[in-house]
Amino acid sequence: MKKIILLIFIFSFNINSQIKGEYSSGNGDDYTIIIFQKDFTFQYLSGGCVSESYGKGYYEIKDKILYLKFKNQSAEFNSKYYSSSHKIIKTTPNKKDNITLNVKVLDEYKNPFPHSYLKHITENLGVSDSNGQIKSINGNTEIKIPFSESNYFIQLSSMGTENYPFSIIPNKNYEIEVTLKAHSDRKEIIQGITLKYEIIKMKKKIMELKLGESSYIYKKTNGNTVQN
What are the pLDDT tens digits along the chain (228 aa)? Predict the structure, then answer.
């Protein structure tokens, strides 16, 4: 009888798992709050002594993995929300398997901005040199990315600046100039990524999750901290 009950639990966990309510992890200085909704959407707030991050999207539980899939914001939203900006200097046709990105980074006074990082989701594509030119790990000034007709999410950031996101359709070569501005008091918007948590333990009022090499205890609360 116990084996039957266990099998039923495993089956329902893998197929129909749903989390409801607000869960929090961390202490007073560093914290993360996730609100899970009935329609498999979530809201996410993470903060510390320096900044706060916010995001929302859809979640899924499959094979004891909790997937938090953060939705992309529109280009119009990002252009209004962030002080940083970018402009496309030139594009050239390219029908090959890969296209090239040539990116230069400036500060708000139009000076070259060294040590700024170009990323795609969690992949580090390159870092800017003393002239503000993004170079790959191999030292190339042209960054190669796969040819596609879909939006390609990019983020530029450096210490003390905004994490500035924008997207392109990588069906041609691009030459882009980015102006990075100082970090503001507004929350950083997490978008276009998926976090994969290994579920170590899940009960009604507590979850133990693992992200990479780090483990986190999330406890259910009665609040509603994150707002639309």
Answer: 555 444 444 444 444 478 999 999 987 678 899 999 989 999 999 887 666 888 999 999 999 999 999 998 887 888 788 889 999 999 999 888 999 999 999 999 999 999 999 998 778 999 999 999 999 988 888 899 999 998 888 999 888 888 898 889 999 999 999 999 987 777 788 888 889 999 999 888 999 999 888 899 999 998 655 554
Interacting residues of 142 by C-beta distance below 8 A, sequence separation 6+: 100, 101, 102, 136
Q: What is the pTM of this model?
A: 0.68
Structure tokens at 212: 């990479």
* Residue 193 contacts residue 120 (beta carbons within 8 Å): no
Q: How far is CA 122 from CA 33, 125, 142, 153, 171, in A?
A: 21, 9, 19, 11, 22
